[in-house]
Description:
The chain is mostly beta strands. The protein has helices at about 1-10, 150-165, and strands at about 30-35, 40, 50, 60-65, 75-80, 85-90, 90-95, 100, 105-110, 115-120, 135, 145-150, 190-200, 205-215.
Amino acid sequence: LCLPLQVCAQLCQRPCYCPWMPPRCPRGSPLVLDGCGCCKVCARRLGEPCDFLHVCDRSQGLVCDYSAGPVGTGATCNFEDSEEGCEVNGWLYRDGEVFQPSCKLQCRCLGGGFTCIPLCQEDVRLPTPDCPYPRRVEIPGKCCPEWICEARDQYRQQDAAAALGAGSPLLPSLCQEWGTEWSACSATCGVGFSTRVSNQNQYCRLETQRRLCMARPCPALPAASP
């Protein structure tokens, strides 16, 4: 018990002499008091080195773990009670934490891995009389793409380009290909069909497309008893 007290007495000098301006911390690292309760420092994050003065972020459940590495190599911030975390794009999250790697996704760290759900609606807008040529575009300043109605004249040019052929140097195609993912097979075994909405056709118009699919062969029926 004497050794830690002596070390603390050597590190903690009174009165405190702290910088006039507190340090600027990276995103996700709050300002906290150092181990002496004297100056404000940036809390260390998961996996970062720590010691008595440079403390870990307790709000994230981190402690300075001296058993994580070989003896004499120092300590690193780790979750208390060996709680699992996950790493996404260089950022470390604790188990159960909800985070957004981008404005289009919301993810949850669970059991060392993570699952995500989209925040943008993946709706499909089919042509209607008031909007015969819908197109999904990125809007500056907005995260999720939105549907707009293109002018009819532009699609007349696209139709003319398709009629002349894709290799025509006179009127290049203006079509921007778009389509949804193929749906799951309609049958759990045997032959079924899957669908998607796509404009990958001669006239660059949205249409529902179908194709045959087979998830797995159906098991053979048991032979009838005599």
